[in-house]
Amino acid sequence: MTATAAPLAEVAGSQTALRAFLHGLPGVDQVGAEQRAAGLATRSIKTTAKAWALDLAVRMIDLTTLEGADTPGKVRALCAKAQRPDPTDPTCPPVAAVCVYPALVPVAADALAGSGVHVASVATAFPAGQSPLPGRLTETAEAVAAGADEIDMVINRGAFLAGRYLEVYEEIAAVKQACGEAHLKVILETGELVTYDNVRRAAWLAILAGADVVKTSTGKVQPAATLPVTMVLLEAVRDARDVTGRQVGVKAAGGIRSAKDAIRYLVLVNEVAGAEWLDPAWFRFGASTLLNDLLMQRQRLATGHYSGPDYVTLD
């Protein structure tokens, strides 16, 4: 990449330098990106590999509830499902994390204590991100203090689209500092970024500012996760590791509901970023209903038939 020749330590030294770096990144061929993503989506996998892929997809899920009507009881039920997705099958692995609003972090932290399932929380005035920075930093720090070990923040898309890249960089860096030891997932809200070039720039901006994971969407805006957008993010983290030596994860969130779709994303991860990213530490699905279909498909592989509609709990 020609743009990566600039010393990365100096990239964020000024608005001018950061803009020059981001706009010096190679452009994304829209037609080419969409054709490649569509081609990878046609790949088929054998039955033994499918069983492995279904279990991996389960392990990659951030089981999410982000509704105004969320209650402690609903969160506790979700945490129970996260730990034992299929109570009838002890071989079914737990999910990666449960993601809730900050006010419900103490409930999730208590319910998941000692389970190995992470507690994730949205912060920084999710989903719009339009509030003063001090309040967003306080919200982040309080969520971590309450037990969240992963924070999903949203970038200020208005600032990004206006070209105020240094402002966005500094806000991400400040939230990263407020996270302490917690991992930071940076939500780009790709449906509002208009172009693939903007998606690539936003991903690199987040990576440079210290993101542990770059995430497609809040799930509140359409389009949310798509295969081409996720491919652009995977290319960014792959290229950034080549340049910086630091590996960053990707989270695809919003609209991924079927096991077939999840497997398409896993094929994309393997082909674009590489097998190193086929791990819950480096790739996640943000989902509320995907898990149910994965459980149905696991059951079908094991028995040869689908169970009735009451086989899985409704979220």
UniProtKB/TrEMBL annotation:
Q: In which pathway does it act?
A: Carbohydrate degradation; 2-deoxy-D-ribose 1-phosphate degradation; D-glyceraldehyde 3-phosphate and acetaldehyde from 2-deoxy-alpha-D-ribose 1-phosphate: step 2/2
GO cellular component terms, alphabetically, are: cytoplasm
Domain of life the protein comes from: Bacteria
Keyword list (alphabetical) reads:
Lyase, Schiff base
Question: Which EC numbers does the record give?
Answer: 4.1.2.4
User: GO biological process: what's one of them?
Assistant: deoxyribonucleotide catabolic process
Protein transport among keywords: no
Q: Which InterPro entries match?
A: Aldolase_TIM, DeoC, DeoC/FbaB/LacD_aldolase
Is this entry keyworded Transcription regulation?
no
- Which Gene Ontology molecular function entries are recorded, alphabetically? deoxyribose-phosphate aldolase activity
Reactions the enzyme catalyzes: 2-deoxy-D-ribose 5-phosphate = D-glyceraldehyde 3-phosphate + acetaldehyde
To which protein family does this belong?
A: Belongs to the DeoC/FbaB aldolase family. DeoC type 2 subfamily.
The name this protein carries in UniProt is Deoxyribose-phosphate aldolase
- Gene symbol of the encoding locus: deoC
